[in-house]
Amino acid sequence: MVWPVIALLAPGLALAQDEVCSGEYPRGDLMEDLAEVQVFFDNADLAGAGTKVTEIHDLLPCAKQVVDTELLATYARWEALVAFFAQDEATSTKWGILSRETWEDYPWPEDMGEDHPFREMLVSSEDPDPTQPPGMELDIPRGGGVFLNGSLIVAPRALGEIPGFVQVFDKNEQCTDAFWIEGSAFPEWLLVSEDSVGYPKLPVWYVGDDPPGWDPDTARDEKERFPVVPVAIGSGLAVVSGVFYVLAATTGSGMADAQDVAELERIRSTTNGFVTASLLTGTAAASVTVGGVLTSSRTVGFTVRF
Question: For 173-195, how does the pLDDT look when each residue is reduced to its tens digit (9 = 90+)?
Fold first, then answer.
């Protein structure tokens, strides 16, 4: 393998993903693109390698499956090497730390011994402290999961200033969003106050190691947000139903005192009307209350697709 030692690239391996995915970026395509970067480096084509890693960076959010940690670590090392040979030590260090943290035992090629300047730079670089938005937790989709660099997480915690690749999955293991962040700069829509969530359960479809900080003995669903409005409406309808029931009973008791058939029919008709109204409002009360409780629960969800 030939490692170039000079060449400058145009700056700007941006973390933002502005492109709209026109299709899926499958694992096989990622593997092929990473292999192509290897060829560029073998041929001392740093410009070609830089162009390719930027392309991979922009395509990764189009992946529909959880990204493989080893593949992400490989990509991050390529990013680090591109920046290193472009003499951008700060950027190279960040991507190098990401690669190291994602795949701790990532093997080195034979021509990159321990005395290689790139490896020496990484050895001398300490990991930044983990950070987390104060007072905030992840607003994990019901039944779904949030992944950082290919690993399931239960808290918005990440190494400060280090690039991170986030994927959000729903209860059906469908990727609903994916993007790059720096440090723990998770978007606001993925965060929620720590007072409004409980200890999360893992997705039923998840197969892998327990996420950092997760305790299966205390795992529970997110606290259900009490459905105040549906319960209030349901209670009101229940009261109305009770009133109609009392009116039906009171009116019906007068049938024994009816003076003729016409009066009897009038009382019976009025009584039946009150009974029907009581049944309808009672059913409505139950439906509104139960529906409100179910839709507010994190353990029951409804998905609408267009």
Answer: 999 999 999 999 999 999 998 87
